[in-house]
Amino acid sequence: MSTLAVRPRWPLALCVEAAAAAGRRLRHLRRAPGRFLGITLNPLVSMLILGYLFQHSITVPGAGSYQEYLFAGAAAQVGLAGIGPSAIAVAGDRDRGLVDRLRSLPIDRGAVLIGHTLADAVVGVLGLAVVTAFGLLIGWRPHGDPLSTVAAFALLALFGYVMSWVGVLLGMTSRNAESISALAPLVTVVLPFLSNAFLSSASLPGWLTPIADWNPVSAVSSACRALWANPSGTATSFAGTHPGVVLAAWLGPLLVVSAGLSLRRYRATG
C-alpha cells in the first residue's frame, strides 16, 4: 500500500477531497434522476393519500388540521428514503473495484464516504424542498416564528444526514445490491407507521405505544411540530413529551457508530 495513501491529512485537504467525491456522486445522480424520484415518492404518496384523499377520515387527538399534523411525518420520511440510495451507491463502488483503485491515490479514503454523505445531504435538502412545496399545496402552514421554522428544517436535514451514514454502513456490510433493494423500502414504509408520523401513538395498540414513542421518527416529527406550532396529538410518556431528548439519544450514537464502523470497514476493504 502506498505510504501517500495512509499519511495524515490536513483538515483542508480532507475537505477538498470530500468535496471532489461529493461532486462525483452528484454528477452520477444527475445522470440517474430516478434516484431523486425515489427519495420524494413515498412522502408525496403519503401526503396525497392520507392528507388529501382521506383527510376527512382521520382526526388528530386534541383537534387541529390533519394536513399540518401529517407534514412533519412525511418530511421525516425524506431522511429515511435516503438510506437505500446511499447504501446502493457505496455497495456499487465497492463491487466495481473503485476502493482498490483509490488505494493507489494520495487521498484519505475516508473522504470518499464523507463525500457520499455530503452529496446525499444536498439531494435530501432538494427532496425536502419538493415535499415542502407539496405540503404547502395541500394545506400545511408553519405557525411558529421564522427562526423556529428554519430550525425545524435544519433538524430534518440533520436527521437525513445521519440516515445517510446508516445507508453507508448498510452498503459497506451488505453482500449485494439486491438485498439492499429489498430492505431499504421496508425501512422507509414500515418505520413511519410504527411511529407518530401519520397517527398519534395513543391511537396505536397498547403494546405498540412505547415503541412508537421511542421511535426516532416520532421524535423528529414531534420536535418539528412543536417548532412549527402544528397540531401534535396527545402524549403522556417521557419520550412523547421530551422528543428533543429522545432525538439526541438516537442521533448522536447512530452517527458515531455508523460513521465509525463505515470508515473502519472502508479502510480495511481490499
Description:
This protein is mostly helical and 270 residues long. It has one domain (3-268). 73% of the residues lie in helices and 0% in strands. It contains twelve helices and no strands. It has helices at residues 11-31, 34-53, 66-81, 83-95, 98-102, 110-138, 146-173, 177-193, 209-214, 216-228, 238-241, 243-268. The longest helix has 29 residues, at 110-138. The protein is elongated. Residues 1-8 have low confidence and may be disordered. It is a multi-pass membrane protein. It is found in: Cell membrane. GO terms for molecular function: ABC-type transporter activity.
Main attributes of the structure:
single chain, 270 residues, mainly alpha, 12 helices, 0% strand, ABC_2_transport, Transport permease protein, ABC2_TM_bact-type, ABC2_TM
Give the count of helical stretches: 12
Mean pLDDT: 84
Q: Tell me roughly what share of residues is in helical segments.
A: over 70%
Poorly predicted segments: 1-8
Transmembrane segments: 34-54, 69-91, 112-138, 150-170, 182-199, 244-263
Subcellular location: Cell membrane
InterPro entries: ABC2_TM, ABC2_TM_bact-type, ABC_2_transport, T7SS_ABC-Transporter
Main location: membrane
Give a concise summary:
Pfam families: ABC2_membrane. By secondary structure, the protein is an all-alpha fold. The chain is built from 12 helices and no strands.
List the helices and strands and how they pair.
Blueprint: H1 11-31, H2 34-53, H3 66-81, H4 83-95, H5 98-102, H6 110-138, H7 146-173, H8 177-193, H9 209-214, H10 216-228, H11 238-241, H12 243-268
GO cellular component, one term: ATP-binding cassette (ABC) transporter complex
Transmembrane segments: 34-54, 69-91, 112-138, 150-170, 182-199, 244-263
Pfam family, one: ABC2_membrane
